[in-house]
Each structure stands twice: as C-alpha cells, then as structure tokens.
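Recall the central idea of this unit: under ordinary conditions, the amino acid sequence of a chain determines the structure it adopts. In this exercise we apply that idea directly, starting from the sequence alone.
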Amino acid sequence: MTTLTEKTLFSIYGVSIEHPKDWKIFFNPKRTFDYTTGFFRIEDYIPQKGAQVSLSINWEKVPGDNESFARQYCDNILTQYQRQMKKAPFQVETMEVIDFMDGKAAYIVSEYRASPGLVKKKTDGSVRTMQLAFYDENSGRAVVSSVIGLPDKVTEEEDFLRELVFSVRCASHEPNHQG
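Accordingly, the structure predicted from this sequence is:
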C-alpha cells in the first residue's frame, strides 16, 4: 500500500467512507444490516496472504448527544481494555475528544496483543488500531470508523490511514420509505 493509492467512496444507509480503490468490501450476513444498525469492513485483502490492514465501519441508533458520547466512548474503551486484557499488554497512545465536523468525536490510537485470526495469523501478535467515534444527533446514530492492522503497516501508513478513518460521514436523516 502506498499513499499514492487512488481512493473511492463507499456509501450505504447514509454512512460513507473513502477507501483505496483496490481494497475489498466484506459484509457479515449473520449481523443485522440496515439504517439502524450496521457493520462492514474494507481490507487490503490478498489471496493466500490475508489482510494486513482492515478498515471497519459500524453504526447503531442509540439515544444520546454528540459531546457526552465522545467522552463516554473514551471511558468505555479504557474500561473494556482493562477488563479484557488483564494478562495481555496494551498501550493507549492517544485518547482524546476532538473537534470533528460540527461537533465532537473520540479519537483513539492503541496497540495490543490480538487473538489468532484477527489479522490472519495462526498465533496471537500485536495489532495497532486507530478509531474515530462520534454521535450524529440528526440521525440519532453512533458511528465508529476503525483501522486495525499489523503495527509496522499501520505506523508506516499512519497519515494515509488517518485520512481514511476521518473520511467517515453520516447522513442527517432516515431515508423516506414510500409504499
């Protein structure tokens, strides 16, 4: 992957994100996928090798407000890391509430030991993540864009991957359904 990679826009149910044109889009048919709740990932997938970097987007309709959501998201992530990684080392490099669009967002950069298969390896190894989480008050949805990958790949392409994470957008209102 190089920073000269041509990007394209993927949009579904009012949630959109830029991604490298040659990356593959994956959906999980076992998960709910509609305007209210959704998840998909876009990877630099290579047959027989798997992915080195994965960009995922998820959203969920929940009550809340933009500013308190960002603060609460940071608190929840830290609690989750402490609970789930008691025996595994983890490092939170950045955890802050930042200005994003017309409101606030949580921005988190971390590194931790991942379970086998998370990045297509047979044994557990370290992964590096970059997350942007915000609450869109107009649609009532919490939206999270994340990059997860091998630490050297994510670090090497950090500026480019941050651009992708920060390219996430959420449409302001539910689409009209006419019968």
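Residues 57 and 145 are 5 Å apart (CA to CA).
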